[in-house]
Specification:
54% helix
Length: 427
């Protein structure tokens, strides 16, 4: 937006530079002689004529004709000098016109832009750019301002489905999952039963609940699959929710159907194959603890890695989580506890996340690839992370005033024996 106004200012200055100089340019100065000197010149000529008459070189009639001609010349010269003085008065008018233009042109430009232009265009473009590149400035003030501007515009134009969808995805980028759910509901109000939107809303609901399916998320996935049985994200979410409740057979049914839809050599297909292997092992009674898998915002979900994966077993962080004694009175036993690891640089999407209750603390924790939110964002792909604890009264992962937080800013993947303390009150 600042760049736009700088360009407008430069164009206005260029316009004024073209119009004003000709108006204020001074006319060429008149000759140095004054009216008195002109009259003195003609009086000298008249005296010379009279001397010629006295010495007889000029007749009386010739003297009269010469004086008449001399008088006409004098009057013509005086009139010409008055015309040459007129540009001085015209110059004053030009200066006045220049001052008027320097005020009217900028005012007219601003009024015309406000009437015919779109002052929100820069903010909307910023939001669209944020949706296309969600990790470019997720937590920056500029993106938050742009998202707020879009939300304000949608209050005035509530039937803009594309705008609501963009707003929902932007809220997810900021971790405002409850707001994202509300925006998805607006899209569904305008276009009921859209399978892809239902799956996106279910994903946001799961993220808001720390990966725990609730009735709304289950219903949204069921509606999406009823309308489009091959909806990829809905199939991935349905498999994940089935595995969480211990139904490995149903998880296999959903994931095997999804696997048939994916390109065989894709990363998503390889991840689903891993999930299928885990579900089969669980069905055979050889795998435990697989209900820790969490939802992702991509088209397929990341489940726990098979136990034999050596790289996955090395990519873990462990320690003890607790609340600072001085702040324990600020929380309730039922408040939600999030423990998560984020990349030190780049995207702020968590690489691993756990969800407990305050009543569970103090407690030992382990973060590894089984806690991943996306197959493309795991601890095994990072070297250093930022480990956080957040105690949320609202139950959402996004920080709000009154929450407690604590941070270990630069932790090497593989670290053990960490002391993670919620010791800061969010204001």
């Amino acid at each position: 937006m600042t760049t736009l106004w700088l360009v407008v200012l430069l164009l206005l200055l260029a316009t004024l530079l073209c119009l004003i100089p000709p108006l204020v340019r001074r006319a060429a100065p008149a000759g140095p002689a004054s009216d008195a000197s002109v009259r003195a010149f003609y009086l000298a000529q008249r005296d010379q004529l009279r001397r010629d008459r006295q010495n007889g070189s000029l007749s009386a009639d010739g003297l009269a004709r010469a004086e008449d001609e001399l008088q006409r010349d004098l009057l013509q010269d005086l009139a010409l000098r008055q015309q040459q003085a007129a540009p001085v008065r015209g110059q004053r008018a030009g200066v006045a016109a220049a001052c008027l233009l320097s005020v009217l042109i900028p005012v007219a430009a601003v009024l015309l832009y406000g009437k015919l232009g779109n002052p929100r265009a820069a903010a909307d473009v910023s939001v669209m750019a944020g949706a296309a590149e969600p990790h470019a400035a997720e937590t920056g003030d500029d993106m938050a301002v742009a998202i707020n501007a879009l939300a304000q515009r949608l209050r005035q134009a509530p039937d803009d489905a594309d705008g609501w969808y963009t707003l929902a995805r932007s809220y997810e980028t900021l971790g405002r999952y409850a707001d994202a759910v509300a925006a998805y509901q607006q899209v569904l109000r305008l276009f009921p039963g859209q399978p892809a939107v239902l799956a996106d809303m279910a994903d946001a609901l799961l993220s808001a609940n720390g990966g725990e399916p609730d009735a709304n998320a289950v219903e949204a996935v069921a509606q999406a699959l009823a309308t489009q049985p091959d909806q990829p994200k809905a199939l991935a979410l349905a498999g994940m929710m089935a595995l969480r409740r211990g139904d490995a057979a149903e998880a296999l049914a959903h994931w095997e159907r999804l696997q048939a839809l994916l390109p065989p050599d894709s990363e998503a297909a390889r991840q689903i194959q891993s999930n299928i292997a885990q579900a089969r092992a669980m069905a055979a009674g050889t795998t435990a603890g697989s209900n820790r898998a969490l939802p992702a915002s991509a088209g397929t979900k990341a489940e726990a890695k098979p136990a034999g994966d050596a790289s996955a077993s090395a990519a873990r962080i462990s320690g003890q989580a607790r609340i600072a004694d001085a702040l324990r009175s600020q929380v309730q036993p039922g408040d939600t506890v999030f423990i998560l690891a984020r990349p030190v640089e780049g995207s702020r999407m968590p690489l691993a996340i756990l969800q407990w209750r305050v009543s569970d603390l103090p407690r030992a924790f382990v973060l590894d690839d089984s806690n991943a939110m996306s197959p493309d964002a795991t601890l095994s792909r990072a070297s250093k992370v930022r480990v956080e604890i957040r105690i949320s009264r609202s139950g959402t992962a996004a920080a709000r005033a009154g929450d407690l937080s604590g941070v270990l800013p630069d932790v090497a993947v593989g670290a053990d024996g960490l002391e993670l303390v919620a010791d800061t009150l969010v204001r």
